[in-house]
UniProtKB/TrEMBL annotation:
Protein name from the UniProt record: Monosaccharide ABC transporter ATP-binding protein, CUT2 family
Keyword ATP-binding: yes
Organism annotation: Pseudothermotoga thermarum DSM 5069
GO molecular function: ATP binding; ATP hydrolysis activity
CDD domains per record: ABC_Carb_Monos_I
Alphabetically ordered keywords of this record: ATP-binding, Nucleotide-binding
Domain of life: Bacteria
Residues in ABC transporter domain copies: 6-246
Lineage start: Bacteria, Thermotogati, Thermotogota, Thermotogae, Thermotogales
Amino acid sequence: MSELLVEMRGISKRFGKVQALKKVDFSVKKQEVVGLLGDNGAGKSTLIKILVGYYQPDEGEIYFEGKRVQFRSPRESRDLGIETVYQDLALVNLMPLWRNFFLGRELMIKFGPFKFLKIKEMKTQSLKILKDIGITFRDPDEAVAMMSGGERQAIAIARAIHFGAKLLIMDEPTAALSVGETKRVLEHILEAKKKGISVVFITHNIYHVYEVADRLVILEKGEKIGDYKKDEVTPQQVMDIIAASAGVK
Ligand SMILES: Nc1ncnc2c1ncn2[C@@H]1O[C@H](COP(=O)(O)OP(=O)(O)OP(=O)(O)O)[C@@H](O)[C@H]1O
């Protein structure tokens, strides 16, 4: 449990006059679930976008599995096993479940110069893989637009697990979900952890992440103001820390 998967050291980033991050250290161990918390504008998204190569840091270094990395695009980080699930961008609404599952990684068969999609296989496999992480869909042709927010998150998580993600980053995954759906998404996160995956869970709401988190990191105005093992703090204490730092703005 103690081996580091990701280590970000002394990360700073400025956008014009806004110092979005100031010398932030952030790490994730193998098979660890880290809640990344903080108010609006705290710097959570910027930190993650730097980690995946969407932005370059002004200062600081990033290590992945002990090696220095400088990702120039999200594709490069994805190739090494860092998968981000955004609340809205995870899936293509008009496409059916199976297409979404294999999007960008379609199973193909070659006949001479031609390539064909292995549609039947993708349909069967997507249902089976989802079932393996505890979600039963009957129809692989169901359009994702018709699904609930929780089901969409589940598909995105199952896809990441299946394609060998080492780190799953979830940006406010439960913000728009009902209590029941939130609970199921949390179960899928624990399922991902059991399979050896590390998770960063970005949220405003400590109660959404507390149950599944091993560690809680709090950002405020671009600085890291807290880094706790779960058993060192209660949810109320985390809320108080965030509120207190917001109060001195
Ligand atoms: N592309 C950008 N250009 C200019 N300023 C930016 C940009 N991205 C972020 N910022 C600024 O950097 C600061 C940190 O923003 P960031 O989105 O990382 O915060 P956050 O903690 O993710 O907030 P939220 O929870 O509201 O998404 C904010 O002041 C924001 O306005």
